[in-house]
Each structure stands twice: as structure tokens, then as C-alpha cells.
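the two lines:
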Amino acid sequence: MWLMQPFNEGATRLFLGVLLACLALVTVLHLAVPAGHPLHVSAYTVTLLGKYLSYALLAVAVDLVWGYLGILSLGHGAFFALGGYAMGMYLMRQIGDRGTYGDPILPDFMVFLNWDSLPWYWLGFDMPWFAFLMVILVPGALALVFGFLAFRSRVTGVYLSIITQAMTFALMLAFFRNEMGFGGNNGLTDFRELLGFDLRTDATRLGLFIATGVALAMGYVLCRAIVTSKLGRVSVACRDAEARTRFLGYRVERFQLFVFVVSAMLAGVAGALYVPQVGIINPSEFSPILSIEIVLWVALGGRGTLYGAVIGALLVNYAKTVFTGVMPDAWLFALGGMFVLVTVFLPRGVAGLLGYLQGLRFQGQRFNRDRNETQSRDISKEASA
Amino acid sequence: MWMIRAFLPGVWLLCLLLGLALMAQAQEETGQGQALLESLDSPSYDAKAEAIEAIIVSGDERSRRWLDELLGGKLQRHKDTGRFVIVLENRGRNWPVIDALTLEDAGEMSRRDLDGIGINNALRGQLQSALAMLDLYTDDVDDRRDAARELLGSVDAPMVEPLGEVIANEDDAEVRRLLDQALAIHRLDEGDIDAIAELAGSLNSRVRAALNSATRSDDPLVADAASAALADIEQKLRLNSGLETLYFGLSLGSVLVLAAIGLAITFGVMGVINMAHGELIMLGAYTTWAMQQLLPGQPGLALVLSIPAGFLVAALAGIAIERSVIQFLKGRPLETLLATFGVSLILQQLVRTVISPQNRTVVSPDWMSGSLMINEGLSLTLNRLFVLGFALVVFACLMLVMRRTRLGLEVRAVTQNRAMARSMGIRATRVDIMTFALGSGVAGLAGVALSQLTNVGPNLGQNYIIDSFMVVVFGGVGNLWGTLVAGLSLGVINQVLEPWAGAVLAKIIVLVFIILFIQKRPRGLFPQKGRAAEG
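prediction for all of em together
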């Protein structure tokens, strides 16, 4: 079965091994080591790590389309946020009559806005199965419509990047409106419980952390399975020479659409795991700057490697936590500097650097050859443009 | 000599007599003024109304000041001495006052010793029209026009006759027209149907109010004529508001064009994705601010000087970006996008750290504030008009540079076929630098113009970058005309949608429209044809 294919790869097994070992280690350090001990991992750190892992899953989703399909999406934050909002709506409904206004059905912000009934699109979100389905389906549907229109008319390259950015920008503006019924500026917050577990207990936090880790592992295996399958090879062909692939008889837009939708769904799942751990979802998650930051994680980690995306997401977000804590002013300098340095000096990211340092003969050479070819083709394109 | 000596006593006598006469006149005036004010300080409002009439009729030159202060509640009387005073500042316990009769400084008086002269709403209305009547005699034409406008709808029977005299003696046609209308409103209230013809076509809101009440008149003829005139006015108003929407749309469009036109050069012609374009705009705006700091008190001169300065600063910044980042990423558009985005973050944070995270205020010079009155329903704000003109001038200059100069020729040659152009002896790298500097400099110009319309802050550029890209892509990459048409039309569309959709929703609709439009025509409104379109 193609889904089991990745388990035969050494690199995937190594990645999964490291990931699961880390999960186990954090769990043990949190539960078994008493508080106050230098090795103890606090509940705060567990949640922080869980947040990083959901970002890592998002980065994997972006790497799938950028690294293997050649589509630079500057709007993946939108899929992430939509997944988050779907989860947030479920969590809002779970509050029930424990809100400030004590309305058994309406969330607080609707009571505040004097609404007398739930809008139709809020119906059903009190049922977990429906909400979790929406976490996947809503971002997927948006990606399907958007991708169908875009790929059918062969909007590619920079144009696609710019309109994905416009998409997330438009959604951000829309979600800022109170009339949309998603809490406007403040978003959804003040969550109580998820599937009956109190979100404020340490045990639930640890559970969410482990769930996010498992989701990341599953997402990674799924992406790996896609890129190693025949479908993945065709999408790589689309990335490197779209016109040639089309001339060979492949319907390029269908491959693009499929991979794009899968990636959007993964991003939605990442958003859904992110929201209960952070405790809030608001329209700023749609901001174009966040989407473009995700791309930096992937670029820093190493585009087109999947594990590089995970490394990049963890590194950049750890750096962000440290920097914004110690000297907030310097963070944007560091982030901007990373963008410049990585693209100019580290085009294959940390993963490429690791490969280069270890002198990974075979794979490294193949990567470089691929890249040089792509580059020379781009230049010839440029020359003829 | 003897004659002078003989005359000297006579001269003395004359002076003495004159002085006495003047003193007597002054005393008489004081007495009369005292009497006028006394009659004003009566418990009955009817008596007060009569007193106000008397003051107007007296022709006393202080009467305007008195009525003004009476309206403002500042004309007061001392409880013990009965002296009338005008309060200059009614804060604190002791108020500085001046004598109401001599208008000379009278020191300070305790709040508790003073009694105000009360007025009611009827008196307030009477005072306002009385003041307007008085203003009709001033020398300043603008003041007379304002006074005449004030009288629209507040003319009553005793004023008709003096107004007729005023009209007969008035030189200014506008004042006469307004006064005629004011009289016509009065006649309309009395049921005169001919008055409607005189009021037809006026856009003044008080005229409309008068016609509106006339539609409910008992006389069906008057009511019909009034509704007909009103419908005519409504028609004119709709046309006016349409023109106004168009103007605001073009103004917004000109801002978009300014912001995008530099991008049309760097992205459209060179194919370089410069996400730091917005920050170059921001640099231009901050240059204006810095210029105004260097030349305090001369905002106009500073603004004019910051046009070349803004261009230079942004162009130099552009060259720095090109040399340090973009040249290494040739032929990798997506990487260029990311790297220049990094540059934009650095520039933003630089401004935040070096200058301030808060917005800075850029002053508008006098000749740019105010507005241009087209008619009573339509006035165009001058600063927006200037920016619109500036955008068109910048566009024309850019077209000239691209079409008529050696640089433009070389730019077009290099972008169409780099290898061929180089083999013809064009130094492609130099052309790259110059083109990028040109595009960046224009961004700086946009910043100078924007500083007159919006707040100057570190986020200024960020707000425009997505819009700018949209305009360029919508217009067709590599086509300056396309950028102009796209910018202006997007501005107008936005303004047309705004009244019924709201500002945010209008913006969303425009964005969605562009996204869908690009699916339909991936190369924009005016796609390039021929060889340039390949690739």
C-alpha cells in the first residue's frame, strides 16, 4: 500500500524515531520529574512546544506545495486560520451557559451584539464530529475553488503568489468585520473544554501536545507517501518543467489541484490543533505577514525536504520566543535579516547545509543538479522574457 | 507775522470748541448707549426683543459687539454699581472684564458680583438674523456672503424693507442673489407661488427645507410647483454626488497609481518582485517630514524641496537594495520576493527604532488646504486635487523617460532581449541599476504625495504593497498605461461600492474581483503582445 511506502525509507524512520522520542522525553520529564528540578518541563513549556509542533505541521503543508509543486503560496495562513476558526467555533459552543452572559446557545460576543439567534453557519458546530470534519473540509473547499480557478487558467509563479496573498488579505479584512459573526476584532476566545476535558488542566495540555506530535508524524508520513508515489513524481515534474509535463500528456492542473487541496487540509488541521493550545483565534492569523513568515520557516529549514520544514519551523519560532522576550525591537531585524541571508547564502536551507557538511554524496549531488537545472532554465526564461 | 499772532487766539478758541463738542458727543453717546443697554436688562423677553430692535436701528458702532456678546452670554451687569461689562474669560473665580460702553479694560470682577442678561431661544434666533443683518453692512465681501447665507430661511416681515434697500445698494452679485433667495423664501412662506421660480435650482439645504415645507402647503398649486422644483433640485444633487464620488474615486485612484507606478517599472518592466516597494514609499514620506523639521515654519518650501529629496533618498535606497540583494537573485523571482520582504521588515524596524514607532505629522502648506467650491453642493478638497495632478505629472514624465530618452530605449532593449542588447554594447548591469533606481525614486515621490493625505508612520508602506501589486497585475505587467487605467478605475470602483457596501466590504469585493479577473485574463487588462509576451 502506498501509504506504508515511507516506512521503508531510512530517513523517514529516522525522523519519526526522533520525533516520537522527543514526545516521550517531554512527557516523562513533565510527569515524572518533580517541579523545581532543573530537568522538569513545565506545563507552560509543554504548551509552547505543542504550539511549535502545530507550526511544524503547517510548515510541512507549505513545503508540500512549494517544495514539490513549485507553487509559492503566500496565503497558507488563511487555511491555517480557517481550520482554527472551525475548531474555535466548536470550543465556543462547548462553553454553553458558562459565558459572561450565561446564554445557553449564543456565544458571548453575539449576545453583546444583540443577535437573537445563531447564524446558519454556526449550526452543527456543537457536535465534535461535524466540527472536526469542517476543520478539514472548509480549508479544503476554499483551496479547491481557488485552485480550480487558478490552475485552470494557468496562473503560476509570481502571479499565483500575489493572488494567494490577496486572498488571505481579503479574508483578514472580512473576519475583522463584526457582521461576519466570528467575533470581529477579538476573535474567539475564553474556551473551557474540549471533548469534555478541561482545557486549563495540565493533563489536557499534555494530551494536546502529544496529539499535535502524532498529527505531525501522520502528516509527515502522508506527505512523504505523496511525494514518493507516482503522483509525487509528476508533481515534481510540474515544478521543474510545467510545459514539458503537459506536452507529455499529463493534466498538470489536476495534479496541482490535488496536492494544493491536501496541503490546505493539513494546514487546517494544524490550525485546529493550534487554537486550543493558544486559547484564542483572531483575524490577525490571516495577516499576509504571517503567511510569508511560514514560507521563511520552510526556506530556512530547506525547501523540498519536508523534515527541513519541521526544523525551520522549530528553529525560527524558538528564536522568536527568545528574541521577543529578551529584546523585542531586535526581532524584526533578525527576521528580516534571516529572509535576506537565507535566500542569498543558504538557498537549500539548514537541511542543505547539513547535507553539504556531511558530504552526503549521492542525495546532495542530485539535489544540486536539480537545482542548477531549474536555475539555468529560469535564467533562459528570463533572457527570453 | 502779525497775522499769525492775530490768529493764534482764534485757533486756540477753535480747538477748544472742537474739543468740547467732541466730549459732548461722547457723553451723549455714552448716555444713549447706557439707555439702550438698560432697556435690554428687563425681565420681560418681549421688552428685550424690542430693545434688540432699538439697538439695531440706533446704528451705534458698538451694537455689533453688544449683540455678539449677548448671544454668547458674555454681556453682564454688575449687581451693585449697575455697570455693564463684557466678560473676556469666564473661568476661575475672578473674571477679566471690559467696560461695555467704553470698551476699555475694567480689571477683574468677582463672578458673584455679576449678573448675566438672559436670552431664550426666540431671542437667539432674532439675534442671529439681526447679526447677519448688521454684517450685511461690512466691507468684506466674504463676510457679507456668509451673512446673506445666514439669512436664508430666517427673514421675517419687519426685515423685508431694509433688505430691499440693502439689495439695491449691494455691488456683489452673489450677495444680491442670496438675499433675493432669502426674500423669496419669506414670500414662499406667505404663499406666493412666483417665489418658487426664483428658488428653483438652488442647492442650498435651507432652500430645500423651505420648498419641502411648501409641498405641504394648503394651496395645491403651490404644493405642486414646490414638488416640481424640489424634484429638479434632487436631480441636480444626485448629479453632484455622482461627480463627488467620481472625484473621490479618481483621487483614491491617483494614490494607487502613484504607489503602483514605481512598481510597474521594477516589477512590470524589469520583472523584479520588490516587496520593499512600500517601504520606499515610506522613506519618501519620512523625507518630507525630515525636510519640514529642517525648515520649520516653511511647510510649503519644505514640501517642494522634498520632491527631489524624496526621489533621491528612495532611489539611493533602491540602488542599495539592488546591489546588496537583488543582483544575486537574478532569475529567481520567488527568492527575490522573500529576500526583499526581509528588507522591508528591516527598513520598517529601522524607522521604528531610529525615529519613532508613533506616527509623525506632516503639515500641509496653506495653498494646499481648503477646498475649491464648484457650486453649493460640490467642493473639491485642494490637497487631493494636487495629488491627482501630481500623479498625472509623474506618469507623464515617466512615459517620456521610457519612450523618449536613451535610458528608456536601453531599458526596453535589455528587458526584451538581454543577451542581444549586451552584444549591441549596452551595459546591462548599469541599466539594471538605473531602472531600479528610477522605479524606487518614483516610489519616493509617491511617499511625498501620500504624506499630504495620510499619517506618516512605519506601517505606511505595508498598507499599500498589496494594492500596488494588484494594480500592476490588473493593468497588465510591463504596461505603464495599463497601470494608470487600472489604478484610476479601481479607485472609482472602490468609491462607487463604498456607499452601499461600507469601506471594508468594498475593499474585499475589489480584491475578490481582481482575483477572479486574473483567472480570466492572467496577463491583465492590457497584455503585452509579440515577443515581449513570451516566457
